[in-house]
């Protein structure tokens, strides 16, 4: 059983009374989308070259729609397990507010619209990267990796790391080492971020048969992996400075925030397997969201301080 086409038990759900606009907006995973759009904006602003403000806005809209579309397809495919997990049981499909087939059509149409609009309004490279991102999230992560391997987040994290590279390609028309560095920051950040969540949601994943690392390898092994990735993450976040795309303000801020991230990872490493041991994981998960936002906000703020180098021509 691995398709959202499965009939969902509605015995204790709200009855279907026609999907509302809010239900379809929820399918787009707006909280995830907001971080995707922000990192894409930073990539666009850091890139060399100029882009008309209208084209820049359209690029961000296309990225937002593409991210939301892949989220909707993910909810269609995972509808069978979403209804059994505390974290996801209130999503529109498990609650019976949106039919699985409607979510699939909605996500598929938006996927094609976002990619075609990006190709027509921005450039072919950014459209290609957007298409790769959607396909990677849907086919590689959701349909292939998520239910088969504890490395699902490690490999699948690439989907969430593409947006700043897409923004860079939209403004510059190319892929550079600097845009790859932005990709690498999110790629290395993703495993400790999600494994922290998985530590205190392990029972949820175990009950639905998703082989997250704490379920397959145990919490002790997961805590070690979180620490290892956190150690690697710190120098990766400083790579934009080494490449000259960011300066001292970002470098100092990234170093301070990174040391805090590392300290929280050490707390997890020392924690036990009981409920008290889950508290450091909750702290790291919450901080990790702020941390990624803060890194990219520092990049953007530093670039805005030098208006002559903006990638968007005002």
Keywords:
314 residues; mainly alpha; Tetracycline Repressor, domain 2; 72% helix
How is this structure best described in words?
This protein starts with 20 loop residues before the first helix and ends in a 10-residue tail after the last helix. The chain contains 16 helices and no strands. The longest helix is centred in the C-terminal third of the chain and has 30 residues, at 275-304. The chain has two domains: 20-174, Orthogonal Bundle (Tetracycline Repressor, domain 2); 176-308. It has helices at residues 21-27, 30-46, 53-77, 79-82, 100-121, 124-145, 152-156, 158-161, 163-172, 177-200, 202-208, 213-216, 219-237, 239-242, 248-270, 275-304. Mean pLDDT is 90; it is low at 1-17 and 307-314. Helix 6 packs antiparallel against helix 9 and helix 9 (163-172) packs antiparallel against helix 10. It is mainly alpha-helical and 314 residues long. The radius of gyration is 20 Å and the shape is flat.
Architecture blueprint of SSEs:
Layout: H1 21-27, H2 30-46, H3 53-77, H4 79-82, H5 100-121, H6 124-145, H7 152-156, H8 158-161, H9 163-172, H10 177-200, H11 202-208, H12 213-216, H13 219-237, H14 239-242, H15 248-270, H16 275-304
Helix pairs in contact: 2-3, 2-9, 2-16, 3-5, 3-6, 3-9, 5-6, 6-9, 9-10, 10-13, 10-16, 13-15, 15-16
């Amino acid at each position: 059983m691995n398709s959202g086409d499965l009939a969902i038990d509605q015995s204790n759900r709200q009855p279907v009374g026609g999907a509302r606009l809010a239900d379809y907006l929820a399918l787009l995973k707006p909280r995830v989308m907001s971080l995707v759009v922000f990192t894409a904006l930073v990539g666009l602003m850091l890139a060399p070259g100029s882009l008309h403000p209208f084209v820049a806005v359209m690029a961000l809209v296309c990225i937002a729609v593409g991210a939301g579309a892949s989220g909707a397809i993910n909810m269609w495919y995972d509808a069978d397990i979403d209804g059994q997990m505390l974290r996801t049981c209130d999503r529109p499909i498990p609650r019976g507010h949106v039919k699985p087939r409607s979510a699939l059509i909605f996500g598929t149409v938006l996927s094609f619209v976002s990619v075609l609009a990006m190709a027509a309004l921005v450039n072919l490279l950014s459209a290609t990267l957007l298409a790769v991102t959607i396909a990677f999230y849907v086919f590689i992560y959701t349909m292939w990796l998520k239910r088969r391997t504890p490395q699902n987040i490690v490999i699948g994290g690439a989907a969430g790391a593409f947006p700043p590279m897409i923004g860079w390609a939209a403004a510059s028309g190319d892929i550079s080492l600097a845009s790859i560095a932005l990709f690498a920051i999110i790629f290395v950040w993703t495993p400790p971020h999600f494994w922290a969540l998985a530590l205190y949601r392990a029972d949820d994943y175990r009950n639905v048969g998703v082989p997250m690392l704490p379920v397959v390898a145990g919490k002790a092994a997961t805590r070690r992996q979180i620490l290892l990735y956190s150690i690697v993450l710190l120098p990766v976040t400083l790579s934009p400075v080494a490449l000259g795309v960011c300066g001292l303000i970002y470098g100092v801020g990234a170093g301070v925030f990174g040391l805090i991230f590392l300290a929280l990872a050490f707390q997890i490493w020392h924690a036990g397997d009981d409920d008290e041991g889950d508290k450091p994981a909750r702290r790291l998960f919450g901080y990790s969201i702020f941390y990624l936002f803060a890194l990219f906000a520092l990049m953007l703020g530093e670039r805005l301080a030098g208006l002559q180098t903006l990638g968007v021509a005002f």
